[in-house]
Amino acid sequence: MSLLQDLTKDMVAAMKSRDKETLNTVRMLKAAVKNEQIDKGHDLTPDEEVAVMSREYKQRKESLEEFEKAGRDDLVKQTQAEMKVVEKFLPKQLSADEVKKVVDDTIDQLGASGMKDFGKVMGAAMGKLKGQADGKVVNQTVKAELNK
Q: Which GO molecular function annotation, any one, does this entry have (predicted)?
């Protein structure tokens, strides 16, 4: 089942249960996917769908940080609820240990020996972890492993 079909199914379920918060979030996600389809000019591949959902999640995460700094508890709760809805459409996120293992494997494969190889390792690791780990976590892990 494609992402658009999943979104439509969840949208109908939210309408039937009169869950306005979920309905609004799913509608935003569906619009983002449709806009991406229009921009690309074709149906999205699974990787492109994951990229759209990751971008939507990242936007909400950044907004959450700003709302917390500003003391906007009402917006913090709303954004957290939106993030939970978006998480349902993302692949399972890897733990820090699993990210470290992938980074270590990538370093071994590339023969990286120090921070001069950071770009190569980061690019290869992000390719392997696409949508499964936050870029900040991967960045910190690569830096820690290359500084050993």
A: carbon-nitrogen ligase activity, with glutamine as amido-N-donor
Q: What share of the chain is helix, strand, coil (3-state, %, to 5)?
A: 80, 0, 20
Distances (CA, A) of 93 to 27, 43, 90, 137: 23, 25, 8, 11
Give the whole-angstrom CA distance, residue 81 versus residue 133: 20
How far CA 47 is from CA of 26, 62, 75, 91, in Å, comes to 19, 22, 30, 10
**Domain 96-146 class?**
mainly alpha
pTM for this model (two decimals): 0.73
pLDDT tens digits along 85-131 = 988 888 788 888 888 888 888 888 888 777 887 888 888 888 887 77
